[in-house]
Write a structure and sequence with these properties.
- Chains A, B: Pfam families: dsrm, Ribonucleas_3_3.
- Two copies of one chain form a homodimer.
- Helix content of chain A is about 55%, strand content about 10%.
- By secondary structure, the first copy, chain A, is mainly alpha-helical.
- The first copy, chain A, folds into two domains: about 15-170, Ribonuclease III domain (Ribonuclease iii, N-terminal Endonuclease Domain, Chain A, Orthogonal Bundle), CATH 1.10.1520; about 175-240, Double Stranded RNA Binding Domain.
- The first copy, chain A, has a three-stranded antiparallel beta sheet.
- In chain A, helix 4 (about 60-80) crosses helix 8 (about 150-165) and helix 7 packs antiparallel against helix 8.
- The interface of A and B includes residues 60, 61, 64, 74 and 76 of A.
Chain lengths: ~250, ~250
């Protein structure tokens, strides 16, 4: 144990490792202790080495861990910041913060996106669309393992939530158009369906066309690179058509 | 601050409060500091007092927090216990531990169920079917706020995971029959549908009948007190009919 600790301290880092350590310090605020954790967090599965037994060395395990830790820290933060808000509000705002799209954006803003090791065409918008958000989650997992819960909480609150998110704006702008329509349909006793009416493109660049149908009447169509996004796009148009407000 | 601390120390507890403090100590291992947190965790919304602005004093906010904290701690525990398992395995086992049914069972085993304050008929099986699991989550939230993350992690690992769960058994018994069939259908290129074909009973005791349809042929039906349970029951029968193994 002590030997491993000393050898880690004394081992010479390569230039690339030193560069990564500096980049991590800029992102999380302090020098990493166990750099290997951060290297792993930034390894997309496409660039991962296969070890024995088919076990791959990619950031997927760290992403699983970081997802849970990030969710807990954001839950705690909102719980304390809004002592008089009910759990429905807290759940909704947390979902707006930790959803894939938001995490992808954060990953770009925080400069994590550029550090990811992956195989593929960097100019293509279609490859690995959630790679950035996944790496951000994996980084949270790495910080948790490297520095502990309290440090990780500070990192998430200061560098992610306070550093890059505008909570008032997130609360004001309810971009979940689908849930607005579902709520409206329930209130007004209307029959509502979301249907995927078409899929286009190749396996790796598939685009979906969704349609909103109210009382068997098609109302609006929308497209997107996932079923969910296509439905959201169709829902957004429906909101405009029906003049439904997006304010909660 | 100091005054509040002292008045809390010196305030006489009622007999009921003392009894609760002893029960909590038996469950979590140490005396609670802020008993009010635990009282809140054990207050079902049916027994909650409405405060001004329609804000209710029930365990729902604590449940939201505890759900996230419990998820993170279990994620961390499995991550470290199974260093060579992939994230799909970890996610699945975590879901089996923290699903509503499992949490309800744990709540009964740990004696939390009997401490919950609620309005309703205690003999009815139908009222508030997830009340126990919700209270367990809220209790985790209370421990986290009262004693901090590290204590809460010890509580979850020692008293919940090691104290009441048999991980080998959980791993061996894949009770998610629905996912087994979905996997099988994808592998074998079969068209699979789950349909709710009937609803029975009154609003508070509704029973659902689900049907599994493969290549437009009905295969099996199942019933349950929620759509999910009905689908699981139908899926279980389908697994037996198709002789699909439930071992992962």
């Amino acid at each position: 144990m002590i030997f491993r600790f000393l050898s880690k301290l004394l081992r010479k880092h390569s230039k690339e490792e030193k560069r990564l350590a500096i980049a991590i310090k800029q992102i999380i605020g302090h020098k990493p202790f166990n750099l290997a954790l951060y290297q792993l967090a930034l390894s997309h599965t496409s660039a991962s080495k296969s070890l024995q037994d088919g076990f791959k060395e990619s950031n997927e395990r760290l992403e699983y861990l970081g997802d849970a830790i990030l969710g807990a820290i954001v839950a705690d933060y909102l719980f304390k910041k809004y002592p008089f808000k009910e759990e429905g509000f807290l759940t909704e705002i947390r979902a707006r913060i930790v959803n894939r799209e938001s995490l992808n954006q954060l990953s770009r803003k925080m400069g994590i996106q550029d550090l990811i090791r992956y195989e593929g065409n960097p100019k293509s918008n279609f490859t690995y669309k959630s790679m950035g958000g996944d790496a951000l989650e994996a980084l949270v997992g790495a910080v948790y393992l490297d520095k502990g819960f309290h440090y990780c909480r500070k990192f998430v609150v200061r560098k992610i939530v306070l550093g890059h998110l505008d909570l008032d704006d997130i609360i004001e702008n309810n971009q979940n158009y689908k849930s607005i329509i579902i709520e409206w349909a329930q209130k007004n006793n209307r029959d509502l369906k979301f249907e995927i009416v078409r899929e286009e493109g190749s396996k790796h660049q598939r685009q979906f066309i969704a349609q909103v149908i109210i009382d068997d009447e098609p109302v609006a169509k929308g497209s997107g690179f996932s079923k969910k996004k296509a439905e959201q796009a169709a829902a957004e148009k429906t909101c405009r058509t029906l003049k439904l407000s997006s304010r909660p």
